[in-house]
Amino acid sequence: MFIGLILFLTSILAMTLSIPDAPFPQGDEIMHIRSIRESLEAGSYALPALSGLPNPYKPPLLFWMGMIFDTIFGVNYLSERLVSFLYGMGTLTLFYIFYLSLSKSVKESKLATLAFGFSFLSLKFFGILMMEGAMVFFTLLYVFLFYKSKIEKNITYVAWGSFLVGFGYLLKGPILHVYISIFLLSYLYIKMIRVRKGKLHISFSYIKEERLTLSLFSLSLIIPLSWICYLYFYSTAGKELLRFFFMTENMGKFYGANQSGLRIWGGWLLYSAPFSIPIILQIWQTVRKKSNHRNQLFTSGFLVFLLFVTIFHLLPNRKDPYYVTPFIPFLFLLPALSNATWETVILSKINRMSILMPYTLILVIAIVLRLPALFGFSLIAIFFTLGFLFQNQKVNANFYQIFLPQLLIVPITMLFLIRPMADPDTAEQLSGLVQKEVCVIAENPWTGMDVQNKLMNYHVTFSLPLTYAESCPVSSTLVVFNDLKLSDEWEKIGSWYRWKQHLNLDLLQIVQALLKRDKIDFQTEVSVWKRKEIK
């Protein structure tokens, strides 16, 4: 069963890699793909380019890997997303090894790996070109090597882990260094601080005990300092890139509109789904139950680490839910750390009853949207689960009657809800164009980048709605993504509808639209225009 489900997971991810519109998109992916392709076209290998200039938003490692895969396998979505896919497979392998080291049980390690592999985090970020998949890998790698060094009393593991953290800088800057620093701080906090007989005791001797581990962390600076020196001394645009990256891109997160902290807490629930409820119960049991098992130090350290990184991400004004993704694997490690089994976790009363909620919701959605495949699968899952709730069978059979439907919630949603409701493929809608000069008119420049990524054989330019006459003087075709009155020299030749990214509807209007089964309130028209021939 384990091999079959892993192959099923791999096939789901592999199947979505080549689809331009990913089932679970993330806006930054458009920019990353655009940067890779522009860099290849311009021959800008050392400094990836974006819109004709060096890309100032992110360090180059992800773009370098994307360019390598595009060079080997051809320029397409599959090649570029293969980077995240490989990081994902590496993460799942590392997670299995880590869990096996903690639990000493092959069965438990397989169940945990399946649960993590079918989580929303894995099915989203291991199939799109984002830094998050790689960040999950490098964060987990350092913690695993740290654990190995403590178990085997071999400091070499920490040395290698510290050095490899340096590659994280080439992904998203110094944020991985911050995460690992918080992890080391959490570990020291648990060792140094004790409450005995109502009194607080702080022992600084543990800092001396861990001085070699802390000193070796300086190895993580080798790669970042090398790259910074290259930019500063050998690149003409290097100083400006460094200034923009550190001051605008990173510090700017503290100066934008202050977003709700619920976004971060929601990120924990979202990216651990569909196992959010059993994980919350496991955290509660771990905190409430006092234990002296062999992993108690690491268990407490992990919980403090997760609390500290949550607080850290609540500080900036920008609070995107996906900021917590590097730490989601540690939630799935908790049963092994606290000597619990996945059968106990999954068969808890609250989790058994809660599994019906998402499938009931999916069933209602399937009826409203008239999706027969989704209706069928959700109905089967409900009957399968009810069969457990009302029958007295063997515990092992009971476990799989809950575990398998819970495991398949995200894939079923992806394959039978998201894909059938996806926007029409832009490349297919514009496949009949003879003229290769296309101008995209939209409010967001990333819309233009998205069309440019999809129309590889066309020359695509972008324009804001009010400046299209100046920005697109030689374009033979306009693709308009908003309501705009064009001059008389243009005639409409086609259109299609896409889902609105921002709904300007109140709850009553949404309910009325759903009852009418009218999608038009949730969609906006994309129109195609060609320049009239001069008679």
Automatic annotation (TrEMBL):
| Cellular component GO terms held in the UniProt record | plasma membrane
By its UniProt entry, which Pfam families does this protein fall under? Answer: PMT_2
Q: Where does the UniProt annotation locate this protein?
A: Cell membrane
Give the membrane topology.
Multi-pass membrane protein
Q: Name one GO biological process term.
A: response to iron(III) ion
Top-level taxon of the source organism: Bacteria
Q: What is this protein called?
A: Glycosyl transferase
